[in-house]
Amino acid sequence: MRQAPPKPVPATSAAGTAGNSGTSRLNKRMAELGLCSRREADEWIAQGWVKVNGEVAPMGLQVTPLDRIEVDKVAQGFQEQRVTILLNKPIGYVSGQAEDGHTPAVALINPRTHWRDDPSRNRFSPPQLRGLAPAGRLDIDSVGLLVLTQDGRVARQLIGEDSTVDKEYLVRVVYQAPGQAAPRHPSERSTPLQEIDERDPVSTNVQAVFPPELLERLRHGLSLDGEPLKPAKVDWQNPEQLRFVLTEGKKRQIRRMCELVGLKVVGLKRIRIGRVTLGNLPVGQWRYLAPGERF
Fold it and tell me: Residue range 146-157: average pLDDT?
């Protein structure tokens, strides 16, 4: 049977940079067009699955926005088989590689922890673990929605340099007013001497004592690692819990932001990434991103 010809990709699609007369590496250009990740592009180029202006492309080729890129349907077929998984990460698991003896979250992806109410028709198979990597971090002491994917397009959308996908968090806090010792939240008690009165507004009604001007600083005006942070949406969800919506994800960003204004985070849960929500997914279980779901 004769193989179908490669699918042409117009140089003006997706990235919208046809007006740029400069050149870039082919793998970067393919990522800009939303075809795949750079790593996937390198794999496809090595297999001879990519043509530029009708010729099989060599590794490291420089292209312009006007060059015509074609991708063989074989590569597209491999891409369609790649899965994206949504995990409700528990405390005690690291997002990425194992570190300091802690287990990576990918270890939770197995048939026993697959959510029984997953509406997807996908069935788990071991090849789905190959190249499955987190698209974004979630601290070891944080819980909630973690995305793991084999699809470079999804990874680039969520953690690429030009990503605009927002993430929503629920954050329990206690407030250390200037001149006070750091209060312990009731859930952190270790001895009777360290217990605090549950009526203490610093620990149980933080909203009542937290200065409004500091809330404004959380929204815009803080810097981390010598760089100003992008504006964030921060509001009170209840007297002890803030709702953060961020479009960036520096390491331990919310905890460090809170420290700068005298707040201590005692619980952090991510409940949404873009248009995908955690929903009723139980802690420690996972489901597939459905075909119709988009971040």
Answer: 90
For the entire predicted model, the pTM comes to 0.73
Alpha helices in the chain (DSSP H): 26-32, 38-47, 73-80, 152-159, 201-204, 206-209, 212-219, 253-260
- Distances in Å between the alpha carbon of 200 and those of 182, 183, 197, 244? 13, 9, 5, 24
Distance of CA 178 to the CA centre of its chain: 34
For 29-38, 89-98, 226-235, 272-281, which range has the lowest pLDDT when averaged over its residues? 29-38
Residue pLDDT, tens place only, 79-95: 667 899 999 999 999 99
Instruction: Count CB neighbours of 75 within 10 A.
Output: 22
d(CA 42, CA 46): 6
Q: In this structure, are residues 92 and 115 in contact, taking their beta carbons and an 8 Å threshold?
A: no
Residue 263 tokens, joined? 């707040």
The domains located in the chain, with CATH, are 7-79 (3.10.290.10), 82-163+276-288 (3.30.70.580), 167-273 (3.30.70.1560)
Rounded CA gap, 234 and 116, in Å? Answer: 34
Contact assessment for residue 69 and residue 26, using Cβ atoms and an 8 Å cutoff = yes
For residues 250 and 243, the answer to whether their CB atoms sit within 8 Å is no
Count helices and strands in the chain by DSSP H and E runs: 8, 19
| Farthest-apart Cα atoms in the chain, separation | 80
Q: Environment class of residue 228 by beta-carbon count within 10 Å: exposed (0-12), middle (13-18) or buried (19+)?
A: exposed
Q: Is the dihedral of CA 261, 267, 271, 274 positive or negative?
A: positive
Q: Show the tokens assigned to 261.
A: 């204004």
